[in-house]
Write a structure and sequence with these properties.
Helix content is 33%, strand content 25%. By secondary structure, the chain is of the alpha+beta class. The protein has a 9-stranded mixed beta sheet. It has a 3-stranded parallel beta sheet with strand order 1-2-3, sandwiched between helices.
């Protein structure tokens, strides 16, 4: 129908094809670990869509398979490769904000499609895994460490997935991240980094487009900071090329992916037990 010159009829034939070097995995979340490992064992490099796994055991199994195969496995958080994110990191690391005391983030959109895989608990559905992972990973990136404590609240669907999730993370230096995510509200995508001297607000940080903004506020003055434009997915493709062909370390390490998965798992545990969870 689409004039594709060469089509393969199964996942098995894809991973076994000797002419394929890299596989991108965009399956439902519950299938990420299985097919990442099968692709690695077949000698392929793997770019797997976020979340890499639904528990830290899955990340560890992928790490063992990558080491065994001598291949690259990395998580497809494409915002990590965008110039906007690099500009945010540069501002935070420059000290212009002063000592960082907090992070705020949100990612919501209305999910109205019946039967969507993101509403199926058996397939790893839920708003925290789907969109809340962005502000969670963003805060951990800028904090440079795993949180020490996590607390979460969720509103679940009749099927048992979280339609709305709100959470807090506390880091060892006393800084705190607050975020919300969900499938029931309007589209919202933003991050804020709060320092003792200034605050940095990032509008539409997770997929840079013409409406993305980087705003530095100090007192009554707000300055819009520049950043380069780039196609949203080009950076992660270039990162995979450099890792597979040139031996560079991928920007998103398996250790970082493990941190993100462990943090999200702690947030879910907190929401289920209604208590603070220590990481």
């Amino acid at each position: 129908d689409w004039s594709i010159p060469r089509a393969l009829g199964s996942y098995e034939s894809l991973v076994e094809d000797p002419d394929i070097d890299v596989i991108y995995i965009s399956l439902p979340n519950s299938l990420h670990v299985e097919w990442t490992i099968r692709a690695l064992d077949a000698g392929k490099h793997v770019l797997c869509e976020k979340p890499l796994a639904l528990n830290v055991t899955g990340v560890d199994r992928i790490a063992a398979a990558a080491a065994r195969a001598g291949r690259i496995a990395t998580e497809g958080f494409m915002y990590r490769h965008q110039p906007l994110t690099h500009a945010v990191e540069a501002v935070v690391n420059s000290g212009r904000l002063g000592t960082i005391r907090g992070f705020k983030g949100s990612f919501t959109f209305p999910l109205t499609r019946d039967g969507d895989v993101r509403l199926d608990p058996a397939l790893g559905g839920g708003s925290l895994w789907d969109v809340g992972c962005y502000p969670v990973s963003y805060a951990c990136l800028l904090a440079g460490r795993t949180p020490s404590e996590a607390f979460g609240w969720q509103q679940t669907s009749p099927g048992g997935v979280d339609l709305e999730f709100a959470g807090m993370l506390r880091f060892e230096d006393g800084s705190v991240a607050q975020f919300d995510c969900g499938f029931t509200g309007p589209f919202r995508a933003e991050m804020e980094v709060i320092g003792r001297d200034a605050a940095l607000r990032i509008a539409r940080p997770f997929r840079t487009d013409a409406l993305s903004r980087l705003l530095l506020t100090r007192g009554d003055d707000t300055e819009e900071l520049p950043f380069q434009a780039a196609p949203p997915f080009s950076g992660e493709i270039a990162d995979m090329e450099a890792s597979a062909l040139d031996g560079c370390l991928p920007r998103i390490s398996l250790e970082e992916s493990r941190r993100t998965v462990a943090t999200i798992a702690a947030l879910y545990e907190s929401a289920q037990t209604r208590r603070i969870v220590q990481l």
